[in-house]
Amino acid sequence: MHLLSTTIFISILALLFASPAAALGRHKSLFCYRQSAEVPTEDMQALITNFETVDPDQSIGLAAMSYFAWPFRGMKLCVFNRFNLHNTHLSRKEAGKALQTIFDNCCDKDEPWCVGGYQQWHGDSGLYIDVRTTRIGLNCED
Asked: What is the C-alpha to C-alpha distance for residues 37 and 117, in angstroms, rounded to an integer?
């Protein structure tokens, strides 16, 4: 019994003190929104292309507990760093990959509107960051 409680205690400590890079290997969650957050499908496709072709290696800094928004035509891509103590960066190329994953799983390219969604991605430090789509008139936090 003592060995079991020691093993559990060590496992909990490992989770509490894991390095940010340890998050990199975990599964990334994805979910699609409902109609209330629809964005134009054409705009999402154009933003993905923009991320791939216009300065794809440019990175934005995400300070601890901050977010960045990329407004584009009728939509906005919001990127959140929800870690309290760690900063990270996200390249335009990686933002495009996250957006492509949302598009592939949540959109029908033949429909004019896409419900959009949320994708957990990672910054250059290995920290999880939240990537989500929204309409241009809405706040990222909504």
From this structure: 8
Using an 8 Å Cβ cutoff, are 76 and 138 in contact?
Answer: yes
Contact 75, 133 (CB under 8 A): yes
CB 130 within 8 A of CB 123: no
User: Distances in Å between the alpha carbon of 66 and those of 14, 21, 35, 83, 126?
Assistant: 26, 19, 27, 9, 16
Tens-binned pLDDT, residue by residue, of the chain (142 aa): 554 444 444 433 333 333 333 333 333 688 898 766 789 999 999 999 999 999 999 999 999 999 999 999 999 999 999 999 999 999 999 999 999 999 999 999 999 999 999 999 989 998 899 999 999 988 888 6
Round to whole Å and give the CA distance between 97 and 90: 11
Taking 3-state DSSP, the helix, strand and coil percentages for the chain, each rounded to the nearest 5, stand at 35, 30, 35
Q: Closest by alpha carbon to 133, among 74, 92, 81? A: 74
Distance CA 48, CA 141 (A): 22
